[in-house]
Structures are given as C-alpha cells and as structure tokens.
Design goal:
Radius of gyration: 16 Å
Shape: elongated
Helix content: over 70%
Largest sheet: none
Oligomer: single chain
Number of domains: 1
Structural class: mainly alpha
Strand content: under 5%
Length: 177
C-alpha cells in the first residue's frame, strides 16, 4: 500500500486532468463568446465528456497513471471523481432555465471539486484551484449575468493554468515511489 506521497508519484498528482480542464476552459471561452447562448451551452456541456479521456492521455504522456490501482487512495480518488456525476442535474437545470449562468455554475462545481485533491495529493496547486475558481466565479457573477457569461470561462482558464503550473512544480519535486 502506498502512502499519499507514493500515490502522488505514481499518478503524477493527476496533473493530466487539470491540464485537460485548462484546455476545456479555453475552448469553452471561445464557444461562449462566439456561439449563441443555448447552442453554445449545449456544445460546452457535451465537450465535458472529452476532459477525462484527454486527462488520461496527458497523464500518460507525462508518465503518470491516474488509473493506478493502489487502494485505499485510488478508491478515494475514484470516489472523488465520480462525485461530479451528481453535479449534472444542477448543470442541466441551469442550462434549461437560466443558460446565461451556465459558465458560472460549471466553474463553481468543477473548480471546487479539486479541493479534496489538495488533501489527497498534498498539493497547494489543487487547494488553490479548488478555492480560487469558485471565489473568482462569484466575484465575476456579482457584476451581472452578461459579464459573468463573458468572463467566467476565460478567468477560470487562467486560474486552471496557474494551478497546473504549481502542480507541475510539485510533481517535479516528488521522489519516485
């Protein structure tokens, strides 16, 4: 059984997933800007299905195995990932009722889900991501729905990119398992 440091080394702190999330938020920024509200929201929701496979691919390219079977930590990591499925009723309701708020809702839910990974990976980068994205999304939302719709995705992409840089530094400092 690996401890958290060993698990972090094997998985490379799961860095491929927030990198894939960064790509997603960059693409979502363009879609929310260029595509009409309802169609853009639908496109972005469908595109979320690409984040996990892309994250696995990026992790493999960085010699990490986010699917490593190392109970109980891999079990916890899996549970934390699956929790996101329970966000979908909220996301779908938002899309159907108030699609202008979709970037806000997605940023808060998907950003905050990284918070427990801060503990799992002993990572300041994940804590930063899990706290700053929701706080930033709320601050931007307070400026109104049109500002939130326009700025939440690009602001989220920037925070994800900063967090990825922090986690990549943490990964480089890891001792091999």
């Amino acid at each position: 059984m690996l401890d958290r440091q060993g698990f972090s080394a094997v998985t490379k702190k799961g860095i491929g997933l927030p990198i894939a999330g960064t790509v997603f938020w960059i693409a979502a920024s363009a879609v929310f800007y260029l595509v009409p509200l309802k169609l853009g929201g639908l496109m972005v929701m469908v595109a979320t299905g690409l984040v996990f496979p892309l994250g696995i691919l990026v992790s493999r390219l960085l010699n990490g195995d986010v699917m490593a079977k190392q109970p109980p930590l891999s079990d916890l990591g899996g549970i934390l990932a699956v929790v996101q499925l329970f966000y979908w009723p909220i996301i779908i309701l938002c899309y159907l009722v108030l699609p202008v708020w979709l970037p806000f809702v997605m940023a808060v839910l998907f950003g905050s889900h990284f918070l427990p990974y801060g503990w799992l990976y002993q990572s300041r980068g994940y804590y930063f991501l899990g706290i700053v994205v929701p706080v930033l999304a709320v601050v931007v939302a307070l400026m109104g729905p049109s500002v939130s719709h326009a700025l939440t995705a690009p602001a989220t992409a920037v925070i994800y990119a900063i967090a990825c840089a922090v986690v990549l530094k943490e990964v480089a400092a890891l001792q091999p398992a």
